[in-house]
Amino acid sequence: MRKLSTRRRHPLAGLVVLLLGLVVAGGLYAAFAPRAATAEEASARDVEAGRQLFLIGCASCHGKNAEGITTKSGGNYGPSLIGVGAAAVDFQVGTGRMPMANAGPQAPRKDPEYTAEETKQLAAYVASLAPGPSVPESEYTDYKAATTEEIREGGEFFRTNCTACHNSVGAGGALPNGRYAPSLKGVSAKHIYEAMLTGPQQMPLFSDEVITPEDKRNVIAYIKSVQDQPTPGIAGGSVGPVSEGMFTFLIGMGGLVGVAVWIGAHGARVKKRSS
Amino acid sequence: MTDDLEPTGASEGTVAHEPIGDPGLPEHQWRPTDVDADLERRAERQVSTLFGLGALLFLGFCVAYFTVDADQTFLGWNGQNFALGATFGGGLLLIGVGIIQWAKKLMGDHEIVEERHPSASSDEDRTAVMIDVNAGLNESGIARRPMIRNSLLLSLGALGLPVIVALRDLGPLPHDQRRTVWKKGMRVVNDVSGTPIKPEQLQVGQLVNAEPAILFEEDADGERVLHGTEALQVKSKAAVIVVRMRPEDITPSKGRENWGVDGILCYSKICTHVGCPISLWEQQTHHLLCPCHQSTFDLADNGKVIFGPAHRPLPQLPLGVDSEGYLIAMSDFPEIVAPSYPELARDQKKLDKNS
Amino acid sequence: MTTEYTDIEKTPVGKKMAGPVEWLDDRLGLAGAGKKLMPVRKVFPEHWSFMLGEIALWSFIVLLATGVYLTFWFQPSMAETVYNGPYKPLNGLEMSQAYSSTLDISFGVRGGLLMRQVHHWAAMLFVAAMVVHMLRVFFTGAYRKPREVNWLIGLGLLTLGLVEGFAGYSLPDDLLSGTGLRFVDGLIRSIPLVGSYLEFFIFGGEFPGNEIIPRLYMAHILLIPALLLGLIGAHMLLLVYQKHTQWPGPGRTEKNVVGYPLLPVYAAKAGGFFFVVFGFTALMGAMIQINPIWAYGPYNPSEVTAGSQPDWYMGFVEGAVRVMPNWELTFLNYTWSLNVFIPGVLLMGVLFTALGAWPFVESWITGDKREHHLLERPRNAPVRTAFGVAGMTMYAVFWIGGGNDIIATKFHLSLNAITWFVRIGWIVLPVIAFIVTKRICIGLQRADANRILHGYETGIIERTPDGSYSERHAPLPVANQFVLTSHDRLPVLEAPAEEDANGVAAPGSRGARLRAKARSFYYDGAVDKPTTHDVEHAAEHLGDHDGHPVPLGEDFQGVSETGIPRSHL
């Protein structure tokens, strides 16, 4: 220690400290910043396999080089995928939204067309085109590790940012002109994360700088914990007064009027009293 | 009116004109339980069984109360709620069904005829009461002493005034409806976490649900300056959303060209219809939908209303960047936020004058 | 009339009762009061549709019982607290005491969640039963003289029920109830001229303030229940005094009431029904989730959930507010938010005024000032029935508007398309419903007349010697014929005299003309019942017709008038 303290006034000390600071900052940045998936990281074989799959299954809408195809009117036939990153591909293909089965207000969730391996290859190819958000680290999708406090905080983020579209238990909701915010039931933590990160279709994106990866993990933990709560009875598909009103009339009034009919009904009769 | 259908005593006369005469009450028919002693005893046993089962279920309720824990589940439902409700409700239902069954099968079954009387009082009653009322009124002299009568009416009418005036302190007079806590230099911070936002942290298509920084300010003891309902009151007017679009997609109206930062715009989160917080932003169409009544605003076009019951466009908050590079408000909202109120037009003029 | 009776000591209810009963009667004169006010053998006619109001009454009792239970724990305060309880996802969150105590009732009190759910289901059923009961009264003309006052009392009960329900919906201070309050805040603000003042007085300052939940609590557990109880009492007293209406039938006239005595049959059935209603709501509370406030989170004005709706009975207002065009104007330097005020405030006013005025308007049109104790079958008042169905249609269309987001997601429709459907449908569909309903009623009236004159179809096919086939008709039993004909004959419509005998314009002739028009509209197209002459000569008139009724002997094996083969009866 003495050695260090004696040299702190050395002409080069400032430079060393500056260098050290830069290295630490850079290291921390490298450790915490979202890792851009680049071609070097994914194996070249995956990229090539992904390109082949892309040319067969995706290029007709998104263009041979994923540059997108514009319609005559200037709209998007298939948007450019340059820079969307592996996360977007993993979400769109992994949830079956892409490839689209038919044109509609929005691509619905369905059984995926590609295997997990093929999805990875497609993601690797698209990620190789330009840097973009990568598939989240497993530590940010391990929602089971969240503490009670973290779940509560995730709930606050969820209610502030998500419930307006997706409903407070993630049952989904309506958007203009036939579009909708899909249900979050049965969606994997990874896909929820990727949706927040990439903003698929009409959904706005929530970048890691504003809603941090930990926040996102907590949001997922809250959704899962709310959906795991036992309900006190049939929940009616979605939560809310519309289904409750339906039950009021169909079951409540229906049942009680049935009883009233039974009370008022004249039962079997016989002609004479046998004595 | 001459052609009113008045009550007449001649309704018996009209009976003769009825196409079908009243055949009278049909002959009483017996129930099987009236004629068959076996069936009667069976019904008796049935009813007693229902009551007995009811008693058992109530006992079951008590057992469930002490044995079924809150975290036990049944068919994925809350087990305690189900156990208590099923035993309690089942028992009640059995008692009810038992009583009704008793009435239907075993109680007397002869229909009874009761005569109706006109709803109006009889003439004698009317006369007798009016004699009394007249006597009473005459003794009071209310007709002969109009001064007393009128002054009484006056004072009773005036009694309404204190009743209304006493309600005055239900709340303060309307104030500050045109202002929010936003002011020049206040940072726009992320809701919940309270972290300030830099423009470069936002990507195109990003939405941030944000609040004024004052909501997250803490005093020396680390306590929030605003909390409880005070904080809710601030939020109910000052909550905002920050969105980033491609600058070329935005068509700012005159005077708003510099209200955004590189395509980042900030709008009130409170719907101008009845005040629901709106953040259903479609990043591709730039439309913002209110989940309550479906008013739709175009954020690329100055918050213009494009569908639904809202009338006023969504107020926009002019944005800037402070010396540390964080997003700040450049002023309070130049337009009035939250639902319309009668003095809105006047208040808006005042705002316009000040700006 | 027999004067023999068994002394109370010897009745089955027990010797032990005799002492207290005598003690009480010595002081209160129970026998005299009972005989006058509520004879124990008072007769109530029996029909399932007469028990709809009972559902409302018994739900109200359930509400009182469960509501009292909930007050033991509920804290009507907006003061801030930090939740630390068994419901983990909200642990450590700041919230109002109202919300935190509701969480405690739901998770900390055994049976508390059940009571909350039963209370809420009973509330939904209370209003639903009132509405259905009112529809029954409307469509059978039971509100006619002398029961107009009871109709108005019932309307008052419904109005109070809506307010009471809304207050209860708002109390837990969860995100949904707060969103509802925010909506009401917008409604209050929209009231012309005084909106801001009302808002600040009601909320005790700017929304949401500190006061609204304690104030609503007072209204919810004291003020409105007391008013409801009083009005229910008046409703029942009038029912007892005027005696229940009854359906026409053999032996049932305007001057009597036929049915079962209060003691024992009616008391048992009504009392049993109370247990059924309580049990039923308890089972609903056990098996169907309602208002999961923990899932919504505490109220926060910058949060909202998709699918935010009021409870069903406010759904029509919600729908009207959603589909209303965005009219707002500035007039006399004031802002007039017609987009909120018309559907949110005015619509309910118009609806309840129309309902309240209807008995009087109808009696003015028909000129009917007689007492009615026999109900009218809906088909025999085609215009009334058609108005009722048109009103229900409009209500239902607004309902669709109120749930448009849920309908859009569940049926994959466009939100905007549903909104446009409602914008057009609320005016077009009731007109169609009116026309269709009226035609159906008239068709049914024709069918009734036909069944009287031509008898019913027996299902027996006869072949004549020349080879043609026909179905044998048999006359309806007299009792059935009587039911079909026991209603008023159509009045003869005459144009009102425009001038009196001296050629001077008759006083009030304008009103009279309007009334004559309304009357001819009211009776237009209705089919009168057959006359005595028609019935007596039916056989002769229809001598050549193959459908004339032929009396059948006891050994006839075709179908009965109800369509069931005789051999099965």
TrEMBL record, chain B:
Signal peptide: none
Pfam families recorded: QcrA_N, Rieske
Ion transport among keywords: no
Region (Disordered): 1-31
UniProt keyword terms in alphabetical order: 2Fe-2S, Cell membrane, Disulfide bond, Electron transport, Iron, Iron-sulfur, Membrane, Metal-binding, Oxidoreductase, Respiratory chain, Transmembrane, Transmembrane helix, Transport
This protein's record includes keyword Manganese: no
Entry superkingdom: Bacteria
Gene Ontology CC: one annotated term: plasma membrane
Domain Rieske span(s) in chain numbering: 259-328
GO MF annotation: an example: oxidoreductase activity, acting on paired donors, with incorporation or reduction of molecular oxygen
First-listed, main subcellular location of the protein, grouped into a coarse class: membrane
Similarity field: Belongs to the Rieske iron-sulfur protein family.
Protein name: Cytochrome bc1 complex Rieske iron-sulfur subunit
From TrEMBL, chain C:
Membrane disposition: Multi-pass membrane protein
Gene Ontology biological process terms in this record: respiratory electron transport chain
Reaction(s) this enzyme catalyzes, per UniProt: a quinol + 2 Fe(III)-[cytochrome c](out) = a quinone + 2 Fe(II)-[cytochrome c](out) + 2 H(+)(out)
Cellular compartments per GO CC: plasma membrane
Domain Cytochrome b/b6 C-terminal region profile: 249-443
EC identifiers of the protein: 7.1.1.8
Protein localization: Cell membrane
Cofactors required: heme
Enzyme class: translocase
Transmembrane intervals: 55-74, 118-139, 151-171, 217-241, 262-288, 340-361, 381-401, 413-436
Official protein name in the record: Cytochrome bc1 complex cytochrome b subunit
